[in-house]
Amino acid sequence: MKCLWLFPGQGGQHSGMLEEVDSDLKKQVESWTNVKLLDSEEGYQDSQQIQLSILLLQVDQIDKLKCKGWKPDLVAGHSLGVFGAAYAADVIDKEDVFKLVSLRAKLMQNSYPSGYGMGVVVGLSRSEVADIVAKVHSKDEPVYLSNQNSELQNTLSGKISAIKESLQLAKENGASKVQLLRVPNPSHSPLMQKVAARLEKEVGPIALHQPQCIYLANNNGHPVKDVNDISYDLANNLIHPVFWETMINVALEYQPQVSIEFAPGTAFSKLLKAKTDQLSIITLQNMSVDDADYLLNKWKGKYND
Amino acid sequence: MTERNWHSHRDAKNARLSSALSLLDGKFAKTKDVVKVLETLIKPGDKVVLEGDNQKQASFLSAALTKVDPEKVHDLHMIMSSISRPEHLDIFDLGVASKMDFSFAGPQSTRVSQMIADGTMKVGDIHTYLELFGRLFIDLIPNVVLVAADKVDREGNLYTGFNTEETPTIVEAAAFHDGIVIVQANEVVDKLPRIDIPSGWVDVVIPADKPYQLEPLFTRDPQAITELQILMGMMAIRGIYEKHHVQTLNHGVGFNTSAIELLLPTYGEQLGLKGKICRNWELNPTPTLIPAIESGWVDSIHSFGGEVGMEKYIAARPDIFFVGKDGTMRSNRALGQVAGQYACDMFVGSTLQIDQWGNSSTVTHGRLSGFGGAPNMGSNPTGRRHSTPAWQSLKPDDDPLAKGQKLVVQMVQTFGSNKKPVFVDHLDAEEVRKEAKLANVPIMIYSEDTTHIVTEEGIAYLYKTDSMEERKAAIEAIAGVTPVGLRSDPKEVKKLREKGIVALPEDLGVRRQNAKRSLLAAQTMDDIVEWSHGLYNPPAKFRSWS
C-alpha cells in the first residue's frame, strides 16, 4: 500500500488544538525552545506560537502513527509543513526541528514589522497572474507571484499597496475571487532573502539524514531523495514559491493509494478530491490516530493483493 | 582484407543467451531470478522496448528493471508507446536508462516535463503510434523487448487474447532481427486457448509474481453525461453523421462520443438513420456502444485493445467483434491504427485547447503528455484511394483532379472542466516546445486536417472555408464567450450560416430543450448491464455499492 502524507502550513491553527498532544512531548518542546505554548486564540496572534504549535501537533501525530507501524512512501509539506514532512521522512531529528522552526518563526516575525504581506487570486491561471504582477512590480512597489496552490489559485507576496493594486487588476481581468491574506510577511518571495540566509547558516551544522521516502520539494515541485535537496528546501523555501500543484501532480504520478493529511485543517484533502477519485483519503483534523490506524489496516488487505 | 561477419547480431544474441544458460530451463526462468536474467541479457546502451500501452503494462518486468545494478545495466534507450507507470521514469532517476522515444505520457506527464528540463531524460522524439511502431523496423530496431502475455504453454507459445494490443508488433521487430524477446506470463498452462505468438519468436519466459496491470480506460458511466453533451451529440448526428452518410468511423475516449453512442438507438432511430450510418467501427469495446449493437445498428467492430468487463459479452457476439475460435477477442493496436487512419470515414475526438486557426493539443504547461491515437486517426491520409460517400462529400468541386477527404471532428465545450477557455489565441504547446527544446510544436491535430468543430454553440464546417480569415471567423462563431469567441461579428456569422460554413442548433433542426437525459438509451451502468443481457460485468470502480 503506497501512502502519501501531507503537512499543511499556517492557517488552520485554533485554540485547543494541542489537547490530544502527548504532554511530555509538549514539555520537551517548551524546554528546547524556551517558549511556553499557550494554545489559545490570544497565543495564536504570535508567529512563534503558531509555527511551533502546528509542528508539535504534526510531530505528535507522526510519532503515534509510526508507533503503530505506519510509514510514508511520499511526503509533501506546504511552507511550514516542510518541517513535519522532513521529520516524517527521518531527515531531521526532533530536537533540531523544533529549535530550527522556533528560530525561523522569530526571524520571520521581526523581518517586516508592517506594510508587507500576501494576497490570493482565484480563477486566473498562473501565467495570467504573472502578467498582472509584471505590470505592477517595481523597486519601490515590490510584488511577486508566490504560491501555486492549485491550477487557478495563486498567491502574491510583497508590499501591501502593490498587492492591493495587483488584486484590483486581477479582479478587472476576470478573477472570481481576490483577497488579502492575514499573513504579516511577504513569504515565498525574494523579499525573504535575509531570513533564508540566516536559516541556511543554522541548517548547515545540523546532522541531517538521507530521507527514507520520496520528499516533494516546495521550491521546484520535484520529487527528491537526496538530503542536500531537502536541506536546501528547509532553509530556502521562504524565498521560492511553493509549487504545491506541481508537487501534488508529481505525487499522484507515483500512484499512491492512500493519503493522510496531518492537522490542522482539511484544505489539501479537498483539493485532492477535486483532482482524483483514485485515493482513499484520511484527514487527522477530524479523525483520531486510532481510527486512522483501523482504516489503514482495513485498506492494507485491499491494496496489497 | 578479412571478410565481414554478416551475422554479428546473431552471434551477439547467442553469446548473451549462452551466458544466461544457468538461469534457464529451456526458455523458462524462475520468477525470483528476474533481475539476474535482465542483468545478463541487457547490455549498456541497448535499445529496449518495454511494453506499456495505455491499457496493458508489463508491470512485473518494469518493476524488475528498477532493481538491476546500474553498474551493469545503464544508459538504455527506452522505446515505449506509453509512459504510464512510476517505474518507467524511476529507471531514469536510477541511471539505468537515459533516452526515451515515446508516444503517450499522460499518466506521467508532470515528471516527464521535469526530467526533460533537468536533463535526467533525453527525448528522442514524440511519435504517433504508427510512427513509433514503424521505426521499430527501420531505425529503432530493438536489442531487447520486454512484453506481457496472459498464458504461456510448456513450449513457450503465448496467448495474449483479449489484450493482444501491440505485443505481436513489438515481438516481431526483435524476433526477426536478432533481438531478444523476454516475456512475463500471468500463468503457465499445458494447453493454450489459442496461440497468438508462436514459441519460435520467444527467447525467455518468466512467470510473473502477479498478473500484469490492466486499466479499464474506455469505460464511461452514462450517469456522468451532461445535457450539454447530449445537445452536442444531437447536433453531431444531424449535422455530420447524417449529412455526410458516415458509415465507417472511430470515436476517441470521452463523454461526448459516449453520448452519441447512447443516442443512436433513440434519437438516431427517430431520424430513421439505422443502417445508413455508423455501421463499421474501429473502436475499443466500449460498454456505451452495447445498446446500439443490441438494436442492430452495428455490423462490425475491430479493436486496438480490450476493455475490462466486456469479455463475456464479446464472446457471445462473434458476428460483431474479432473473436478467435476459443471465444476471446483478439485486439491489435498497430492494425487498428492503420484501419482507423486509412479505412475510416471519420474520426471524432476531443482536446484541451484549440487555437484561433484550428490547431489543437492536449499538451499544456508543465505537462508533456504526448498523444494517443488521435494524431494518426485525426489526420487526412492523402495516400487514400478508395472512395466512400462520406469521403467524396468533402471533395472540392472546383478542381477536376480533386479527391475526397477524411472527416476529422473535434467536439469540445467552449470552457474546459477547469473553467478555462478551450479556445485560445495560442496553444500552450508553443511555449512547451521552447521549454522542452522540441523540434516541433507538439500539436495533436493540425488545422489543415480538422474538418469540423462541434461546440455547445454550433458546428463549424472548416473544410468549406476558402481562406484562413474565413476559417478563423468560423471558429470564432462557435467559440462562445471565450476571448476568441467574443471577437465574433454577428453580421459575419449570418453570412457564414447562409454559406453553410456555420450551423447553429436551429439550422440543424435540433431543439435545445429536447436535449434531455431521458434521450440516452442507457442512463446508468445497470442499464448497460441490462442491455447486454447480463453479459457485461462492470469493473469494481464502476459498480454501485447499494
UniProtKB/TrEMBL annotation, chain B:
Gene3D superfamilies: Glutaconate Coenzyme A-transferase
InterPro entries, sorted: MadA, NagB/RpiA_transferase-like
GO molecular function: transferase activity
NCBIfam families in the record: mdcA
Protein name: Malonate decarboxylase, alpha subunit
